[in-house]
Amino acid sequence: SHSLFLLENGEVWGCGANNFGQLGLGSSKAVAKDVLSISRISFSGDRTLIRDIACGYDFSLFCTTAGRLYACGHPEYGVMGQGTDGQFIKDGGKGPAVQFSCEHTPALIDRFVTKDHHNKVTATRTGAQVKIRAVAAGKNHCVCLEEWEPNTSTSTNNSADTAEDPLNRVFSWGW
Fold first, then answer.
1. Selection from 100, 126, 124 nearest residue 113 by Cα
2. What is the mean pLDDT of each run of 10 residues along the chain (175 residues)?
3. 3-state SS track over 79-125
4. Dihedral (Cα; 16, 83, 170, 103), 10-degree rounding
5. Burial profile 79-113: b = 16 or more Cβ within 10 angstroms, e = fewer
6. Could you tell me the CA-to-CA distances from 129 to 32, 49, 108 in Å, in that order?
7. Is the torsion defined by CA of 86, 89, 93, 94 positive or negative?
């Protein structure tokens, strides 16, 4: 129920539902509602240029020209890429209830994990070690593509060692 617009100059604008901070406009009560006019989304330093964007069900992803990845909105199913689903228990007077800690401003995704086919973690990299070039989002999942550079150190034949090329990765998370 929200839309993002990426301008040629790297600015991002958005409108629509913002009840979980999915537009990244801030945490005040005034912005935690539907935004009826297109509004500019600011990032830390306000000079961040965006190269790709994606809207999930109630979250958003932003990929910078420097290869950094940001997310904002509802964290359910781990879609914020922070290693948590954001759930906490709070007693609201009618008994304990599950609530979520939403991100109302774009938060840096700063950890990328590689796993083997047994779901065992084989490597963990910081955002500074990974340069993302594209993002995509479904209802409750995310995919990003790492910047690709040809690996001149591998042979040109189609041997099995090129399947492990560390410069051509896709990361996914969420449901």
1. 124
2. 94 93 80 83 75 95 93 90 77 76 89 91 90 93 85 49 59 91
3. CCCCCCCCEEEEECCCCEEEEECCEEEEEEECEEEEECCCCCEEEEE
4. 20
5. bbbbeebbeeeeeeeeeeeeeeebbbbbbbbbebe
6. 34, 19, 14
7. positive
Residue-wise burial string across 1-10, b where 16 or more C-beta atoms lie within 10 A, e elsewhere: ebebebeeee
What is the rounded distance in angstroms from the CA atom of residue 171 to the CA atom of residue 79?
12
Q: What is the pTM of this model?
A: 0.82
Asked whether the beta carbons of 38 and 13 are under 8 A apart, the reply is yes
Bridge partners, 125 (sequence order): 112
What is the 8-class DSSP label of residue 133?
E
